[in-house]
Amino acid sequence: MTNTTLVSEFIILGLSINPELETIIFIAFLIIYTVALIGNLIILLLSIIDPGLNTPMYFFLGFLSFLDICSTSATVPKMLTAYVTKSKVISYYGCVAQLFFFTWPMGIELLLLTVMAYDRYIAIGSPLHYATIINRRVCIYVAIIITIVGSLNSMTHTYCTFRLPYCDDNKINHFFCEIMPLLKLACGDTYINEIVVFTADFILGICCFCLTCISYVFILNTILKIRTAEGKRKAFSTCASHITIVSMYYGAVIFTYIRPRSRLSLGKDKIVSALYAVITPTLNPIIYSLRNKEVKEAFKRTIKSRWLPPVSPS
């Protein structure tokens, strides 16, 4: 710590240090963020205002959309602003806030995807008891519990990351303040941080992934017992969208976090981080809406009832 200065701000280098690519990256992420924001807002609003979507499945889907809005809004607007103002500086406490509000929805989303897998198992395996097991009150309690757990996870990561001293080098080789790039800059011992990161992500990542897989083993076993091909197709279609999102999300998160620090490649990590931080939240509403007739019908009903004038009888 001799002859060092603690930093009061960070410089976020972004996805590329090539100025020629900045315009392309700005346009691409502006389009992606706009699609993510609009798509998730539509899903969130439909799950609230449409009576036909007043079910546990769409309660969780609306909650997922809310989390996706939070995670993308924590990172992308700051990056877009940096390209416009040509200033890549973020204050120390701005970096703290960005890390917290990014890891907060990420942790909750891992738990939520696990709950959604169990919800699909009950819906397919015990349809007659579904309304009793998964009701509105249960959904609210589950949402509160996983939010508390996700908040504790985010606070732990944020505190452990910024308890470290940051000296001299303040250039973050990433497009937002994330844990691993920040640990590369720390001038203190990061051994405890690595243990905390690995432990938290093992619990929220590997354990949740295993529980999700267990739910789908039971789902598959139930589907195989259905006699008709049409029945099997309908049962599988109810969880196909969830399987797609789980595969993309868990693959990216596990690749980024469940590894020794010595094997980090920040160039590759930036691409993978963009996948689960920006691309997956954008694809969520598209995947769920395009494959779901109920969402499309709810959207049509909402447009007709709220924005289109009623057709008077001739």
Task: Give a structural overview.
- With 314 residues, the chain is an all-alpha fold.
- It has a single domain (9-301), classed as Rhopdopsin 7-helix transmembrane proteins (Up-down Bundle), CATH 1.20.1070.
- The protein is built from 10 helices and 3 strands, in the order βααβαααβααααα.
- It has helices at 19-49, 56-85, 92-125, 130-133, 136-162, 179-185, 191-225, 229-257, 266-290, 293-306, and strands at 9-12, 89-91, 171-172.
- Helix 2 (56-85) packs across helix 9 (266-290).
Secondary structure layout plus pairing:
Blueprint: E1 9-12, H1 19-49, H2 56-85, E2 89-91, H3 92-125, H4 130-133, H5 136-162, E3 171-172, H6 179-185, H7 191-225, H8 229-257, H9 266-290, H10 293-306
Parallel strand pairs: 1-3
Antiparallel strand pairs: 1-2
Counted up, domains total 1
Largest sheet: 3 strands, mixed
CATH architecture: Up-down Bundle
Gyration radius, rounded: 22 Å
Give the strand order of the largest sheet, numbering strands 1, 2, ... along the chain: 2-1-3
What would you call the structural class? mainly alpha
| H and E order | EHHEHHHEHHHHH
> Which fold name is given in CATH as the topology?
Rhopdopsin 7-helix transmembrane proteins
Tally of alpha and pi helices = 10
The stretches of 5 or more residues where confidence is low (pLDDT under 50) are none
Helix content class: over 70%
Overall morphology: globular
The CATH class is Mainly Alpha
Name the CATH superfamily classification: Rhodopsin 7-helix transmembrane proteins
Sheet-strand content, in percent, reads under 5%
Count of distinct strands = 3
Distance between the termini: 84 Å
Mean pLDDT value = 84
